[in-house]
Amino acid sequence: MLTKPHRTHRAERGRRGMLTKPHRTHRAERGRMACMTKLTGKQIAAEGLSGWVLLANSLQTRIRSGDFATGLALVNAIGRAAEEMNHHPDLDLRYPHLNVRLASHDENGVTGRDVRLARTISALVADAGLTQSARGVSELELALDTPALATVLPFWGAVLAMEPDRGPDVGDDLRDPAGTLPLIWFQESGSEEPRQRWHPDVWVDPAEVQPRIDAAVAAGGTLVSDAEAPSFWVLADPEGNKVCLCTWQDRGA
Fold first, then answer.
1. 189 vs 175, which has greater pLDDT?
2. How far is residue 210's CA from residue 208's CA, in Å, rounded to a whole number?
3. Are 10 and 252 in contact (CB under 8 A)?
4. pTM score
5. For 208-232, what is each residue's pLDDT tens digit?
6. In the CATH scheme, what is the homologous superfamily, with its name and number, of domain 36-133?
7. CA distance 61 to 175
8. What whole-number distance in Å separates Cα of residue 114 and Cα of residue 199?
9. Average pLDDT over residues 37-42
10. Where are the domains of the chain?
11. For the purposes of burial, counting CB atoms within 10 Å of the CB of 4, is it exposed (0-12), middle (13-18) or buried (19 or more)?
C-alpha cells in the first residue's frame, strides 16, 4: 500500500538545532533573513503569483514564446535580471515554449528570493507580449518501496550516477547532479509478495487533479484511494500498477 511520500514531510520536520538566546536584529538583517527562510505552501499561495505553481520544492511556470528566437531573447532578459539579483533559475528552452523553475537550493525549497524573481520574470513576460501558465506543468519523482533501504540505495545511486540528497529537512533521496533525471526517493515497506516496488509521484497544480483523475479513469484506470486528499491521490492502471497525483496542499505547512 502506498503511503504519504516521506520527502513531503520535510516541512513538517522543520529545522533541527539548539535554541539560542534571542537577540535584536536590524531591519536590513531581518529582511535578508525573511528572503532566506523557506516558505510554506500556504504562504506561497498567498503571494498570488499568477501563472506559477508550487511543485514539490520549486516554483514552476511555462511561457509560450511561439518560436525559438523569441524564447531565446526572453532567456537573455531573464539571465540579466537573475545576474542583477544574484539568484538564478533553471531554464529549459524548447521551440514553442520556455519552462522556468525557481528554488533556493540552500533551503531546499522556495524562499522570498524566488518569489521576487518570479515577479520579475512575469514582468519581463508581460513586457515581451507573451503569456505564461501553470497548465500542463508537472514534476515527476520516482519512489522505490523497499524493506532494505541501506542495501539498495547505493546500487541505484551507482547505476544512475546520482548523489544522495541529504540534510536536516530531507530523507534518503537520490538526485541527479545535472538536474536531468527525476529525483528518486525510498519508502520503507514490508517484504510481503506480491508488491509494487516502483511507483511514480506526479506533482501537479491542485486545479489539475480532478481533470487528470477523470482522464485516467476514462482511459481504463481506477481511483484507488483519496484518503490522503488533497495531499495526494492513488490511482491504478488496468493491471493494478499504481501512481500518486501529488499537490502542495495539506502537508503540515
1. 175
2. 6
3. no
4. 0.84
5. 999 999 999 999 999 999 999 999 9
6. Transcriptional coactivator/pterin dehydratase (3.30.1360.20)
7. 21
8. 30
9. 94
10. 36-133, 138-246
11. middle
- Rounded to 5°, angle at Cα 99 from 93 and 105: 110
pLDDT grade, residue 169 (50/70/90)?
low
Residue 175: all three cell numbers together: 538526485
pLDDT for residue 36: 74
CATH T-level assignment (fold) for domain 138-246: 2,3-Dihydroxybiphenyl 1,2-Dioxygenase; domain 1 (3.10.180)
For 125-180, give the DSSP string: HHHTT-EEE-TT--EEEEEEEES-HHHHHHHHHHHTT-EEE-STT--SEEE-TTS-
pLDDT at 28: 42
Which among 47, 161, 173 is positioned nearest to 102, based on CA atoms?
47
pLDDT digits (tens, 9 = 90+) for 231-250: 999 999 999 999 999 999 99
Q: Give the residue carrying C-alpha cell 491542485.
A: 206
> How many Cα atoms sit within 13 Å of 83 on the Cβ side?
6
User: Among 205, 211, 250, 206, which residue's Cα sits nearest to residue 227?
Assistant: 250
- pLDDT level of residue 20 (50, 70, 90 thresholds): very low
